[in-house]
Amino acid sequence: GSADFDLYRPSEEHDMLREAVRALSEAKIAPFAAAVDEEARFPQEALDALVAADLHAVHVPEEYGGAGADALATVIVIEEVARVCASSSLIPAVNKLGSLPVVLSGGEDLKKKYLGPLAKGDAMFSYCLSEPDAGSDAGGMKTKAVRDGDGYVLNGVKRWITNAGVSEYYTVMAVTDPDRRTKGISAFVVEKGDEGVSFGAPEKKLGIKGSPTREVYLDNVRVPADRLIGDEGTGFATAMKTLDHTRITIAAQALGIAQGALDYATGYVQERKQFGKPIGDFQGVQFMLADMAMKLEAARQLTYSAAARSQRVSDGGGKEHLTFFGAAAKCFASDVAMEITTDAVQLLGGYGYTRDYPVERMMRDAKITQIYEGTNQIQRIVMARNLP
Ligand code: CAA
């Protein structure tokens, strides 16, 4: 309702943060973006630059050694990195996705143990919910965690795991009580070095080629009981609460990709001459750019207002219709990013279709934002069930 409507207002600190991340991204991440895509290799330069500037996991609370950035600041970091390299933006985004279950539901000891190394840049986090036969129907997962003495034994296969193999820590959702469906799912922290953890071959993808996506195999992985995040049976709710906050980071990624494409196309149409003048002098081209900028701004407003809600929820406020707004921001911003990047390719014509220009990469990278952290069809189910 209208009583819940409260405008976000980026502070001067947010504006300064944006300037700093933009400068760092252009100097240290953009120069490698094309090669990272072409060679489908992990953007180590980006990780090093983000860690050196303490921008790799800004959401970690101060009490655990982090920067304690608010949700809007986290969005700004992801947005600005994605503007030059979507693959690299998955470093701060998935560090938040993987670790948020611990932040939201973990006990004090678990937080100290796992958030400290993340904040320092010594470890990254991944999030393991999906399985080969449980994607949209996340509650249909098969991975099991069986209580055994002073620990649990995990068995199963997780699929589509972003940054798998690179991350040191994994939040794994697994069935502890098969009779209770979503209420019988629990969340655990699994370490890369735990005996029985291994990884599949990197997926060959359309976009975000610099961010490895692999299966995670759990073969009789024994973890101590204190790796359980929250209580038994609360893992699915924790996983969903996490997505309420982190779908906003995917919206941020979509905004950044779209802004990168719009900026590139805007520069291009002023240089490219046909019929004796820059093509930007033609009204048909101007109208396309106007529509692109309009849609992008609408997506940004929705995303920032969702981020403000996410922050108020984290600060102990009410529910803020966060489930709706997180889904809406992700769904809308990703659809807009697909439209804008496609139009950017169109504005560059034949050149836009080649790898000599960055907009085709941006178009390929944009596509995943309509799919991961829940397809946009699932977002519509979530919105319909949680209308504000
Ligand atoms: N907050 C808190 N609890 C929640 C919740 C939320 N937003 N949503 C659900 N729950 C809890 C509730 O306890 C609920 O029970 P009640 O209704 O009794 O309260 C319980 O979970 C079950 O919820 P549903 O009945 O809604 O469950 P469902 O089986 O119908 O599924 C769904 C709901 C929305 C379709 C869900 O399965 C879903 O979100 N699917 C998409 C999964 C997804 O987003 N995967 C992305 C993987 S991450 C990724 O892409 C990784 C990457 O590396 C980038």
TrEMBL record:
Organism superkingdom: Bacteria
Domain Acyl-CoA dehydrogenase/oxidase C-terminal span(s) in chain numbering: 233-387
Keywords: FAD, Flavoprotein, Oxidoreductase
Residue ranges constituting the Acyl-CoA oxidase/dehydrogenase middle domain according to the UniProt record: 127-221
PROSITE patterns: ACYL_COA_DH_1, ACYL_COA_DH_2
InterPro entries xrefs: Acyl-CoA_DH_CS, Acyl-CoA_Oxase/DH_mid-dom, Acyl-CoA_Oxase/DH_mid-dom_sf, AcylCo_DH-like_C, AcylCo_DH/oxidase_C, AcylCoA_DH/ox_N, AcylCoA_DH/ox_N_sf, AcylCoA_DH/oxidase_NM_dom_sf
Cofactor entry: FAD
Pfam families registered for this protein in UniProt: Acyl-CoA_dh_1, Acyl-CoA_dh_M, Acyl-CoA_dh_N
Record-annotated Acyl-CoA dehydrogenase/oxidase N-terminal domain positions: 11-122
Family: Belongs to the acyl-CoA dehydrogenase family.
Protein name as annotated: Acyl-CoA dehydrogenase
